[in-house]
Amino acid sequence: MTAHPDAAAAQRAVAAVWRIESAKIVATLTRLVGDFGLAEDLAQEALVDALAQWPAEGVPRNTAAWLTAVAKRKAIDGWRRRERLADRIAVIAHDLEREQDEAVASLPWDPDAIDDDVLRLIFISCHPVLSKEAQVALTLRVVGGLSSEEIARAFLVPTATVQQRIVRAKKTLSAAGVPFELPPREEHAQRLGAVLGVLYLIFNEGHAASSGSDWMRPELGVEAIRLTRVLAALMPRERDVHGLLALMELTAARFPARVDANGDPVLLADQDRSRWDRGRIARGRAALATADALGRGRGAYGLQAAIAECHAVAASVEETDWDRIVLLYEALGRIAPSPVVELNRAAAVAMATGPASALRIVDALVESGSLRGYHLLPATRAELLRRLGREEEARSEFATAAALAGNERERALLQEKAAGR
Amino acid sequence: MKYMLIMRATDEAVEAYKDMPFEQVIEAMGKYNESMIKAGVLVAGEGLTDAAEGFVVDFSAEKPLITDGPYGETKELFNGFWIIEVATREEAAEWASRAPLGPGSFLEVRRVTGVEDFPADNEWIQKEAGWREEEEARRARQ
Predict the structure, then answer these.
(1) What are the residues whose beta carbons fall under 8 Å from the beta carbon of A292, sequence distance 6 or more?
(2) Which of chain A's ends, N or C, has fewer CB atoms near its CB within 10 Å?
(3) How many other C-beta atoms lie within 10 A of the C-beta of residue B21?
């Protein structure tokens, strides 16, 4: 390949390769150098080299092998400089050197070993010794191949904050002596749960932020879906991975209809269903079917996906199978009880059997006091009261809800309703 | 962003593939597909059967006319496609250039339309605002 006249274009090409290959590179390096933080640094340094060299010298044929070889050489150089301080390290460096020659001569890697390495990488990035913010940043950076700038833009925080989180996360993992291995069998379910939780958190950042003002955040939802697909390909027998993938696809199917031209959110009832992404709906349903086919029942993600599926297949709010949604919420309430699930169930009950029975559920919630301060509790109660013709009480509840709402647009809407409009 | 990678083969490519063992072709395609599945970017993909089995619907006349061909002057036929979901145009280009295709083969890469391609002020999306079910469900998990 000849030198590219457009350096920016070449840079974007390098970035594209990095996004595709970074997880494999860091995973392989981690296995070789035995230190996740060091591996990540080395990979980043190799990327800097690529950015400097590829635009002028052309993109090498096997980009991932090139980046890995450069990173390994850097590891060896670094150790050589300290060789006299630690003989043991010199031995490792020697092994590395030999391994590198072999790697260049033969196929770059054993694909099965890489799969396992990437899986280990995902589990390390979501390790419980890290804070949620650190898990999210590390997963996007190390598994997703996003730059600190991209992550910062997605989460509306300064780049320096993201960099600090990543540096601190690597130190924490190192200090805790976290090994580069899959969690032991007995911890498996719990640790996978944490991984799925992080992926879902990333997805929701993109989902909640589709305010139309920032283009990057819906992209974050798409990135979360991609990472979940990666996990599904690596762990095809895990029901909850497919369940989560189904939930994300079915939820994301509605993204195009969720905001209006002004960036204001559009209620489910008012969404133009022809704008829903049919491809996502089809893939979401297929993922749910895969989860079901594993024959271990539906987990919390699968049940939520099934609820989303009910909406996805309905032509309108009226034609939605609300009875089924009520049943699904009941099932969800049994395996993952939460007052918010209960509140959602009340909303579904209102659609299925009317406001009176729904109000009983909401009143029980009010009495339990568990959702105190949560504006959607009085807001839901107000809607039900209004439907029952108890206008005065409804207004007062809307006013309470407005006072509790944190989001300005939402507060304005509730205030209007309190005013009886 | 979704991109469609449309495979086109000229007579030259068809000739070249005749000498290649079918299993080898399948293996190469299988590996390529697997790499995209493992990267979480593959959304759909299908191969198309021989053009002789296909037909053309011509809209030149008042009533659509169904014929066996011709398919156009270049003899370049679509014979398969992939749809991938990636972050950038360059990423689509990188994946496309990894396809196991040889001389005479072309990949036409086209972006699949998204919501951004349609007018946002359309009456269908000019409706009242509000949060509800989705937001509640979202908060439930926080």
Answers:
(1) A298, A302
(2) C
(3) 8
> Which of A115, A275, A413 is the closest to B125 by Cβ?
A275
Q: pLDDT tens digit string along A205-257?
A: 876 644 444 545 778 889 999 999 999 999 999 999 999 999 999 999 988 88
SS3 call for B112: strand
- Tens digit of pLDDT for each residue in A94-129? 666 665 555 444 445 677 788 889 999 999 999 999
Q: Are the C-beta atoms of residues B103 and B13 closer than 8 Å to each other?
A: yes
CA atoms within 13 A on the CB side of A152: 13
pLDDT the model gives residue A98:
61
pLDDT of A264 reads 67
Contact between residue A235 and residue A199 where contact means Cβ atoms under 8 Å apart: no
The nearest alpha carbon in chain B to A203 belongs to B138
Give the closest-approach CA distance of A84 to chain B in angstroms: 42
| Structure-block tokens of residue A62 | 């096997």
* Contact flag A204-B141 (C-beta cutoff 8 Å): yes
Separation of alpha carbons A293 and A289, rounded Å:
6
Comparing alpha-carbon positions, the chain B residue that sits nearest to A234 is B38
> Which secondary structure element, helix H or strand E, spans residue A145, and what is its range?
none
